[in-house]
Amino acid sequence: MMMEIKDDVEDGKHKGIREPLIGENNNQLLHETKDHNHHPWMLYFITFIAVCGSFEFGVCVGYSSPTQDAIRKDLNLSLAEYSLFGSILTFGAMIGAITSGPIADFVGRKRAMRVSSAFCIAGWLVIYFSKGPVPLDIGRLATGYGMGVFSFVVPVFIAEIAPKERRGVLTTLNQFMIVIGGSASFILGTVLSWRALSIIGLIPTAVLLFGLFFIPESPRWLARRGRTKDFMATLQILRGKDADISQEAAEIQDYITSLELLAKPKMLDLFERRYLRSLTIGVGLMVCQQFGGINGVGFYASSVFDQAGFPSATGTILFAILQIVVTGVGVALVDKAGRKPLLLVSGSGLVTGSIFTAVAFYLKAHDVCAGAVPALALAGLLVYIGSFAIGMGAVPWVVMSEIFPVNIKGQAGSIATLVNWFGAWLCSYTFNFLMSWSSYGTFILYAAINALAILFIVVAVPETKGKSLEQLQAAINA
User: Fold this and answer.
1) Contact at 8 Å (CB) between 410 and 340?
2) Measured between alpha carbons, how far is 81 from 298 in angstroms, rounded to an integer?
3) What is the distance between the alpha carbons of residues 398 and 386, in angstroms, rounded to a whole number?
4) How many CA atoms lie within 13 A of 360 on its CB side?
5) Residue 161 CA, distance from chain mean position
6) pLDDT digits (tens, 9 = 90+) for 37-56
7) 282 phi and psi, to 5 degrees?
8) Which is nearest to 284 in space by CA: 410, 152, 457?
9) Which contiguous run of DSSP H or E holds residue 326?
């Protein structure tokens, strides 16, 4: 068996890896149907603990918006000083993105989440005790680093523990909890002091750190480290004590064995033909997600509503509520409709919403049908955020967690996550400059970028629903 796998790998054919894709006999299908009728509570408990990191991510992002006036007043900060405090979070996240993959590969997914939690806890405490801009920025940088690690390791961990028919919905909970965390931070920030809100930020990390004592490590990481006994025990816990895990375990181990026969990839090896397609898909989806304007629109939604003549408080509340509801709908649909259809619907809606908003600002700029501008802008922005929430918000993270083989997941995932955070910073940084240049031109630009994103999804992105990680990765990287 080992010689056959080795020969296939050396010949570049990967026969042993692709074999599961050829077909499945009726007995296997019957076995899968029986085992997948129920899933042990432990799987959902583990997912809940992991997405506490996603909730923390949202709290970190949402913290600076409701606290701006109070922090500036209490610490006598200039607008420039507070702007640095707000934006330095993204730089911390970039550093976290660069290091998240190697950390998760070296010490494991659980320990990586512990490292991330430690940075978030330290950051919140520094913010709480801050009496000037320097410690405030240091604390914000630390929470940004933790957030950057969470953004990679949480979806990867969930994808590696989930059965293939539940992987999409469980991984999508990552984005859902980010949205919930951001909304909670915004709402609580209106009734709590900024120091009290920083203490609230400790709660999700405390739950995560406590919960990590009761959940197992990723079975695929254990298998890659050669800890076969732990790997089998963990997989049995995840699938249920009476489940037959022999076929899934054999598939995982055979695939990892075949990968280990290849030379350990260096960073430049990721751009070789063998891995280039998965890297292109992962990075490309992050570009599609961020460069279509979401962080500019999201960060400055109230300002956009004001410019369009619609009450910003009402518009922002509708914006936040719709995002939560539609993200929940996306969670329910991702394993039924599939990843690619949701991305295409999402991209089409982003183009439509951008065009509506562009038309609203064009009418305002040329003083035509001025009475219709607020309603048209509201419709455009709600279509935009609803469309983002249904697919483009969560699905790129789902696909990223699925497509990279375990031997390059850390390095390739770090690159994709870094691109995501760079795009988030660039979009939020340039938004006000673009709006000063041309408000309707800004949304025409976003419409064009989202149209290109649709083209990329049609041409390059495969459907990943219903396949095991090993089947999927072998097909993409064959």
Assistant:
1) no
2) 21
3) 18
4) 25
5) 17
6) 445 788 999 999 999 999 99
7) -65, -50
8) 457
9) helix 312-333
